[in-house]
Amino acid sequence: MKRLTFLLILCIIVVLAFSCAKKPPLGELTEEEPIVIEEEGFITEEVAETTAVVEDTTVVEPPPPPEPTTVYRIQIGAFYGVSGANKRKARAVSYFDKPVYVEYIAPYYKVRIGDFATKAEALNYKSYTTQYFTDAFVVETSKTP
Q: Which pLDDT score is estimated for 128?
């Protein structure tokens, strides 16, 4: 038992000795001794490169988030459950060539079609959607790119 305690204390001392070794502070130059090489009667001297330990303190700011843009969409349904909204979306995808979204705006899951830049474009496309969804109407919403 005494041997085990002695070995444990010895290990701790060795670890502490090596972890407390002097290291050059950041930004301080360290130089190595020149290396002398003797070849066939000639003596040449090579100087080891001087190295510097430098910490990169550059702070990179993340880019700002993109600004939301106003778009117009055609709403074709609002549901309390997501399953009903997904069924309506699947049906709409088969009819229209525009993207169909399910957006949760408490307490409803709203099914909306398109990303129209102007209300006039949305109203024009709405006339096409009413042959499948008679209660469709145009809404203004924000879209983050």
A: 93
